[in-house]
Fold each of these.
Amino acid sequence: MLCDKITVIVNDQSKKHGKKVAISACKVGEGNSKEDIKSAKLASHGIVARDKNGKLVAAVEGHNYGKAKVVEVISKLLKVK
């Protein structure tokens, strides 16, 4: 669910937006990550973004994306009321 590149990006975004949205990076297998990936219909890992009620806001497969995609997903979460 994460690599070093993505961990750095996520941690930076958490510092910037962490007071408005909960942002974390975790390895597949930690907590309920496997169930969360499955319910988001991802094959193995990626970004799973949910609103405060648990509704899926965005899902991004894999980790072949960079800061722009992470920022895009966080922007979607920030718009959810």
Amino acid sequence: MIDKTFQEVANNIKNAIANTRFEIMSDANKKLVNLYYNIGKTLEENSNWGNKFIDNVAIELKISFPNLKGFSVRNLKYMKSFYNEYKEDKEFVQLVAQLPWKHNITLMQKVKDKEISKWYMNRCLEEGWSDSILVYQIDTNLYSRQEKATKHNNFNVTLKKNSDLANNIMKEPYIFDLVELTEDYKEKELEDKMLEKLKNVLLELGAGFSFVGSQYKITIDNQDFYIDLLFYHIKLKCYIAVELKATEFKTEFASKMGFYLTALDEEIKDENDNPSIGLILCQNKSDKIVDYTLKFINKPVGVSEYKIFDKLSKEIQNKLPNPSDISNHLDIRD
């Protein structure tokens, strides 16, 4: 058996190596993006040389640095656009320097509102999105979906802390990539498909979700109760119960969820966990009925609609990240 003290020393060394590697990569990325910004500035300031100026610069760079990539005519034009995009805002320059170059190109091309762009930048940094995941989140309009979702929960009233973070897990609607569902699917079929595509589901739920189980059983006074899907949220430090409803929202769904959350808090969570949170996903809902219902529920509950990816446009479907990209993002192993 390896001595515990030795293992702790070895782990400290490994952590130091990993952290230093990350710092080196991060520093190198910042220097590269700043280089591109300064090249863009030079190109803009000398644009009076005419249409072939950038083409000629690309040729010169190719001759001087034949093995160096990233200085094609197309990329040089991106650098010029990049400089013009952020030259008036030093805060943005510092922020974008933390993102890989490909992310910056995506944001310039797809997001025209700077505040929304800043929102996506921060999410990239917080959740470690790859470029393909960033494209997917923009194309499925994550910003607007999260803005809408904060209205249909009672977190600000029922949570003493972390209400802002809890609001950030909500989306309206959630979009799930669940192919081959029948036209009149039942809740069990929906749950089975979500388990089959768990990596995609975790991507849509967001960073911090850890899967605990499906049809999670809680026994109280010899009676068994089953929660459709149970997760633990690492950042919120709490259990999150998810109920799936292949129908319109009904008021009794919230009462049932309140019971589940009480059972989780009394029977499952320990003293270090925060109060459990409930999420009810329905095909559709009346916002007013949801709001009235949640006013009388003393447990933290959110209600959202969900959409099935297979029923969305082919253009959006083609933006879904591939399985390996999702696995890398979530650090999941099959």
